[in-house]
Automatic annotation (TrEMBL):
The UniProt record lists the keyword Hydrolase: yes
Gene3D superfamilies listed in its UniProt record: Ribonucleoside hydrolase-like
Membrane-spanning parts: none
Name of protein: Inosine-uridine preferring nucleoside hydrolase
UniProt cross-references to SUPFAM superfamilies, sorted A to Z: Nucleoside hydrolase
């Protein structure tokens, strides 16, 4: 089977790091680049973290610095209570960082890589969508050349949840709603892996401890880095474990059969108290809705076989 060639657009971030370890170890994934973006921390921090993660788990994969701020808002403030002061759970870092940033801007790297490999590149985006929007602005024709865009973000209220950054907005959509509305409306194939399924996919303490004891360096790292995130989730009312947000989007790339999707165009609110809210008009709805009807359909995940998704993670790390 041909490999999935992925540009991983990320704001590491604890769950971003966990998803990177999975990609680095999965035999059907070829990481062709890691592009950083602000989000879980400022761009200096997320880029430093991307360099660290690539040095440790994905040597040879270029790391490219991306956007420091949303398209038309100031950069958000830090959120050390979620991912730690260093945004990687404040763990002791093992090993040397032996990588330097690729000199290009992330959006330029995306354009050049997509053009060099037409029809082959999957953009796996698990932070604010600013880099992808900038790439589209620079070269709109890349939309026809990308294999697929898979986004961790948004929520459609399937299980009663619309947001985690606010009551109405998931964090990545809230981080840059203007970019999100552009990216989800562009003429490329988009799949959305949002809170509707990531909240159903919980890595429990027991699951993480089992990986710590059975999956070598990768398993120990996932355990270490998830300690801070688990304390944050506990404070948020969850009993023992973490949501597998960004990993779920990586799992979708290689195992979409584990997800149920709903097709339809999606808008992202860009203003007001619900900025970042994602609203889909399912294709089954016939009534006219001009603000949606001119846009291509996206596949939004509305169901998941979470046991199988977690089993995929464990098997991949143990191999
Ligand atoms: O809402 C979850 C998302 O927000 C994840 O991508 C997490 O890393 C944060 O960026
Ligand atoms: Ca993220």
């Amino acid at each position: 089977m041909t490999k999935h060639r992925i540009i991983y657009d990320t704001d590491p971030g604890i769950d971003d790091a966990i998803a990177l370890v999975f990609q680095a170890r999965h035999p059907q994934i070829e990481l062709v680049g890691i592009t950083s973006v602000f989000g879980n921390a400022d761009i200096d921090t997320t880029t430093t973290n991307a360099l660290y993660l690539a040095s440790r788990f994905a040597p040879g994969v270029p790391v490219v610095r991306g956007a420091a701020a949303p398209l038309r808002r100031p950069p958000p403030g830090p959120i050390p209570h979620v991912h730690g002061k260093d945004a990687l759970g404040d763990i002791e870092r093992i090993g040397r960082v032996d990588k330097h940033e690729d000199g290009r801007d992330a959006h330029r790297f995306i354009v050049e890589t997509v053009r060099a490999h037409p029809g082959e590149i999957t953009l796996l985006a698990v932070g604010p969508l600013t880099n992808l929007a900038l790439a589209l602005k620079e070269d709109p024709a890349i939309a026809a050349l990308v294999r697929e865009v898979v986004v961790m973000g948004g929520a459609f209220g399937i299980n009663g949840v619309l947001g985690n950054a606010t009551p109405a907005a998931e964090a990545n959509m809230h981080g840059d709603p203007d970019a999100a509305d552009i990216v989800l409306g562009a003429p490329w194939k988009v799949s959305i892996v949002g809170l509707d399924v990531t909240h159903q996919t919980v890595m429990t303490t027991a699951f993480l401890a089992s990986l710590r004891d059975s999956a070598g360096d990768a398993g120990r790292f996932v355990w270490d880095v998830s300690r801070f995130y688990e304390r944050f989730h506990a404070g948020d009312g969850m009993s023992k474990g973490i949501y597998a947000h960004d990993y779920s989007a990586a799992a979708f790339v290689v195992a979409r059969e584990l997800y149920t999707t709903r097709s339809g165009p999606v808008r992202v609110l860009t203003e007001g108290i619900a900025a970042g809210l994602t609203i889909q008009k399912p294709d089954s709805v016939r009534a006219s809705a001009p603000d949606w009807d001119a846009r291509p359909s996206c596949a939004a995940c509305i169901g998941v076989d979470s046991d199988a998704v977690l089993d995929l993670f464990a098997r991949t790390l143990r191999n």
